[in-house]
Amino acid sequence: MCGIIGYVGKKAASPILLEGLRRLEYRGYDSAGVALVCGGDLLVRKKMGKIGEGLARLLKSEPVEGNLGIGHTRWATHGPPSDKNSHPQLDQSGKIAIVHNGVIENYDALKQKLLATGHKFKSDTDTEVLAHLIGDYYEKRRGKVGSSRRDDRTARRAVPTQNGSNPLTQAVCDALREVIGTYGIAVICADEPDIIVGARRGSPLIIGIGVGENFLASDANAIVAHTKKVVYLNDYDVATITPERFDVLNLGTDTANVQISKLEFSQEDAVRGKHAHFMLKEIYEQPRTVENALRGRVDNEGATAKFGGLNLTSAELRSIDRIVIAASGTSWHAALVGEYLIEELAQIPVEVEFAHEFCYRNAPLEKSTVLLVLSQSGETADTLAALREAKRRGHRALAIVNVVGSTIARESDGGIYMHAGPEIGVASTKAFVSTLTILALLAVHLGRLRNLSARRALEILHALEAVPKQLESILAQNNAFKKLAKKYAKADDFFFLSRGYNYPIALEGALKLKEISYIHAEGYSAAEMKHGPIALIDPKTPTVFLVPQDSIYDKTMANLAMIRARKGPIIALATEGDKQIGKVANDVIYLPKALEPINPILASVPLQLFAYHIAVLRGCDVDKPRNLAKSVTVE
Ligand code: AGP
Fold first, then answer.
1. How many Å lie between the centroid of ligand 1 and the Cα of residue 129?
2. CA distances (Å), 91 to each of 98, 118, 195, in order?
3. The pTM is what?
4. Could you give the percent of the chain with pLDDT greater than 70?
5. Could you tell me the distance, in angstroms and rounded to a whole number, from the CA of residue 428 to the centre of ligand 1?
6. What are the residues whose beta carbons fall under 8 Å from the beta carbon of 310, sequence distance 6 or more?
7. Among this protein's residues, is 2 annotated catalytic?
């Protein structure tokens, strides 16, 4: 989950790299560094810690010139966060620098081979091994080109021809053919002052196409300020960029499938604006997010929902006899809501799987089982692996994704974009609410191809169209959530409980609190508590209880009474007009009345704000919580 960037052109590379890294910092922030080529020298600046405290200060005190460079912001996999383990990493000669996102699984075997030939390593990273391997091959490749250079007096330094035949590109190809694992890399060499080589397998990498300048980046946020023309590289692609051109070859097929795309968001979408944190901005964007998710997909006339990209006919959709939904983290919680929605409205059996479990447990799948993956980033390695596993076994794989052109979006057989805009805060909020909205639409679509009545379908569609306004009214209660957060911010443990459609939201509320405030919080089924975990309830352990007036209200209230009987403080999320709840809960947040399938969308927002305010009160870094990264591109 690191962030990488490369620039080659006429401008000073250092400020472009630094600004790009700031925009990539949500992908990982253990350390950051840059390497530039200037006057035949390779200049490296790198520092442990977040960019603001580390690299930015270093570049202020020790600036570097040059029009070509690469940068990296790290989420540590191999080797603890430290200056020496920061990227860029260098080869043995110290003339080649590499930045890497991914994991070289056979790095130890490669390292032993290099050690045996006299290589010395300075870091604990797998990336340094790849740098040395490239350096080795570069010498061999340059030797070959060098001999022809020596013969041809007029030969200039090799520049990439159509298939990137300069020695640096070829050396990268040679080295990658020995690698097992995942990589998104950018490589530069002091002897190649206008070439950057990029390559990807399993970790995202795009080319940004400028005028007299070109870019490489892990994702478009890093370069949207400079260009909206991009090429999404595919696995095994190797790109060579110079100020004037780019070439792409593919290690697997030799001819790369190069398509130029236009980014659909602007630089403004990717900045924080007036909000104190990206997470708060994204929470407040949710009424618009839901509108974007609904836009063009509600068919009131046909009493159904419509999608352009499922790539399945109505007959094929009708023939689906089971859906497996695979996802990770917050997206997995959305999958659980999707199970309730699709089973109730479409009567199709649904099984929810952790993506990482689905890949390796060889679950039995019927012929007409479809896999649906959910992913904001479209790059989560576990989820991508699940998608590839389903396709390997011959099953259709659909995806609901936010990042356009992401790997999961491009490798799925069909799908639905969230159109939620960039989600920068590490804690997912608007993408979650967008996914729930789209799952409700999908359930209606599938249901109407079966036995869902037009009346019930229109009820759901109209309830969805009312959500943006309802979210506005919930957001207007922000000060109340802030007050509540103040009252409970010092607790060391929390429970989040509910049942039915809101059980996944209890899990999600607990995750939000955990990941940004570092408080231990457990989401649990309210009914399940009496089978053991209720032993943990005491006056110091607050419970957030989601208890909407739905079909199981009485049961949930009975579970709430069990907590209250053991003097556990209760914060209830209840439905406006509920006259009972105030008598049994210590604090109550009232939500607008809504249909049962819509309650999860409404209940998510107070829990996001509750977690946000507690994290701020506890002085946590809300947008870049410790140990986390926005997109988990390693398994
Ligand atoms: C959620 O707040 C976390 N940041 C994390 O659980 C995230 O949802 C998970 O890593 C899946 O990411 P994805 O939706 O991009 O696949």
1. 30
2. 8, 13, 17
3. 0.81
4. 97
5. 6
6. 317, 398, 414, 415, 416
7. yes
